[in-house]
TrEMBL record:
The keyword Membrane does not apply. Keywords: Hydrolase, Protein phosphatase. Gene3D superfamilies: Metal-dependent hydrolases. Belongs to the metallo-dependent hydrolases superfamily. CpsB/CapC family. This is Tyrosine-protein phosphatase. It catalyses: O-phospho-L-tyrosyl-[protein] + H2O = L-tyrosyl-[protein] + phosphate. Its EC number is 3.1.3.48. It is an enzyme of class 3 (hydrolase). It comes from Halobacillus amylolyticus.
Length: 255
C-alpha cells in the first residue's frame, strides 16, 4: 500500500518527536502493509512551518536511517499546508511542496471547525495556476459535517479530498465513521490515508480501513482508492465519479 499522508518526520511538528519514534512508525507502517509513505508535516497552521527545501533534506535523511535499519519503507516528500490567504504566493515562490515533489497535487487543510469564506476562490485559483488541491480529512471538519453541501460545491469545482483511515475504522467515534461512509457513497472523497502521528493514539490502520471498504463497497472500491494513491504519488490523474449531495441525517451528540 501507499500511504499519502503521515507525520513521520522526526521533530518537525506534532508527529514523531525523535528519529527513534520515526523508526518505530516506519516499522508499524510496514507491519500494516505499507511500502511507500509520503511525509506531510504541518505547514502554516499557526504553530509549525515546514518549507519545501527543508522537508526534502529531512526526507533524504530519514530514508538513510531506514536503509541503515534495513526497514523496507520508502519515504517521499510532501506537506500538509493550512489554508491561508497567501497560499498561492507560497506555491509561486516554491515554498509549498507538491506530493512527492512530482505532478501538481497539493494538500490543503481547513481549520477543524470552519471553512474560510475565501476557500472556494482560492482553491479555484490554485487550479488555474496548474495545481490540484486535495482537501484533507473533511470528515472531521465541524462545518462540513453540519453543511456537507459546502464540500459538494468544492468537489464539483474540481477539488479532491482525502479521508482518514481511522475515521473509516471508527476510531474517531461512530458519528464521524457514519459521515465518512456518506462521503464515500456521495463520491465526495477520492483517497484514503493514515494521517499517522505516532504508533499509539494516532497510528496506522490502513489494512482495517481497506477491509472496511471491501466489506461495504466491494473490491472495486478498494482498487479505486488504492490506485488513486498510486496516481497521486506518481503525479498522474486521479479517478473520480460525479459528486452527489449527501443525504441529510442527524448526527446527534457529535458536537
Amino acid at each position: 500500500m501507499i500511504d499519502i499522508h503521515s507525520h513521520i518526520l522526526p521533530g518537525v511538528d506534532d508527529g514523531a518527536q525523535s528519529i527513534e519514534e520515526s523508526i518505530k512508525m516506519a516499522e508499524a507502517a510496514v507491519a500494516d502493509g505499507i511500502h511507500t509513505i509520503i511525509a506531510t508535516p504541518h505547514h502554516q497552521n499557526g504553530k509549525y512551518n515546514n518549507y519545501k527545501n527543508n522537508i526534502t533534506i529531512q526526507v533524504a535523511e530519514l530514508n538513510r536511517h531506514l536503509s541503515d535499519y534495513d526497514i523496507p519503507l520508502t519515504v517521499l516528500p510532501g506537506q500538509e499546508t493550512r489554508i491561508h490567504g497567501e497560499m498561492l504566493d507560497g506555491i509561486r515562490n516554491d515554498e509549498i511542496l507538491t506530493l512527492n515533489g512530482t505532478g501538481n497535487y497539493v494538500f490543503v487543510e481547513f481549520p477543524s471547525d470552519t471553512v474560510p469564506r475565501y476557500a472556494s476562490k482560492l482553491l479555484f485559483d490554485i487550479q488555474l495556476e496548474g495545481y490540484q488541491p486535495i482537501i484533507v480529512h473533511p470528515e472531521r471538519n465541524r462545518h462540513i459535517i453540519q453543511h456537507p453541501d459546502t464540500l459538494y460545491a468544492l468537489v464539483k469545482k474540481g477539488a479532491y479530498t482525502q479521508i482518514t483511515a481511522a475515521s473509516l475504522c471508527g476510531r474517531f467515534g461512530k458519528n464521524i465513521q457514519k459521515f465518512t461512509h456518506q462521503l464515500i457513497e456521495a463520491n465526495l472523497t477520492h483517497l484514503i490515508a493514515s494521517d499517522a502521528h505516532n504508533t499509539t493514539s494516532r497510528g496506522f490502520c490502513m489494512k482495517d480501513a481497506y477491509r472496511e471498504l471491501r466489506k461495504n463497497y466491494g473490491q472495486s472500491m478498494v482498487y479505486l482508492f488504492a490506485e488513486n494513491a498510486e496516481y497521486v504519488a506518481e503525479g498522474q490523474a486521479v479517478a473520480s465519479d460525479v459528486p452527489q449531495h449527501v443525504k441529510k441525517k442527524k448526527f446527534l451528540g457529535l458536537f
